[in-house]
Amino acid sequence: MDDNIRTEISSLGEFGLIDHLTRNNDTRQAGTILSIGDDAAVIDQFGRQCVVTTDLLLEGIHFDLMYTPLKHLGYKAVAVNLSDIYAMMATPTQITLSLGISNKFSVEALEEFYEGVYAACERYNVDLVGGDTTSSKKGFVISVTAIGEVAPDKYVTRNGAKVNDLVCVSGNLGAAYLGLQLLEREKKIFLENPGVQPDLESQKYLVGRILKPEPRADIVDWLQENDIMPTAMIDVSDGLSSELLHICKKSEVGCILYEDKIPVHDDTKAMAMQFQVGTAACALSGGEDYELLFTIRQEDYEKISRNYDISVIGYITEAKEGAHLQTKGGAKHKLTAQGWNAF
Ligand code: ADP
Ligand code: MG
To answer: What CATH fold (topology level) applies to the domain 9-150?
Structure first.
């Protein structure tokens, strides 16, 4: 390495940085059947397959304690990790939880956080089996690792989408982003005028989507019960564009996404008007929805159409055709990932 060269992290971005740092990563163990590059890794232990994923949440980057109840934060820290396990079509079984805690926290505050952690463990039937605790000079640090299991070779990666497959998404998109905008707006009003108490009651749905997301275990169950094996799958943490581009890149395909097919909740539509942003933009670039984005074979269309909580939003094309959004007006735009980027 030349000592005189300094490359800014921002020139690579989050994904570019991961690719760069792991480009020479070797696999030594026969049991490592899927390594870096998906929602979770897959490890084979004498025919049994387990999936592993980890996430780091930092105060000030991923959450703001001014408007995030600790119980919700505990729940969400677990939920977002489980979402990556479900995105492999696997079932979560255990988690570990590591914390960096500053002295501004009381034992009671941490108990509240754990109430949320335990509530998520109960809801999704997983065991908390360990972790680590240290002090932090500034800010609350949360790291969760989730482990899950899957029948041998029944996991779904990001790289199996084929030309003509249908692109599907669960639930609706863009709500979490607007929930966050709403909380940020109320925070600003409160800081300027502490006498004013925010009224968020009428926006329970949007605020709930950002503060207490639910991973789509139900969708994975339904797909399994109906014998539908997606060809590729990813969870929507960074926004629809970014996730669909991950599938396209890994699967070496292109896609057409129809703007008018993107599922959006009525509350999202109303709030998007207030904030004067397009609902499609919220869905495409907002993130934190924790829905499942997946591709299926055309022959599974009829089965999928029976589930009203799954929308078919586009289809897969040859790589050379690129990844495009077809707008309501009929115009075609190149899909770009403006997803969340810490750098
Ligand atoms: P997700 O959004 O599903 O959590 P990420 O975009 O965070 O996925 O990560 C993509 C892939 O890169 C995953 O396989 C993850 O384990 C891996 N990864 C992320 N950061 C690092 C790192 N610092 N070192 C090695 N692998 C990493
Ligand atoms: Mg993911």
So the answer is: 60s Ribosomal Protein L30; Chain: A; (3.30.1330)
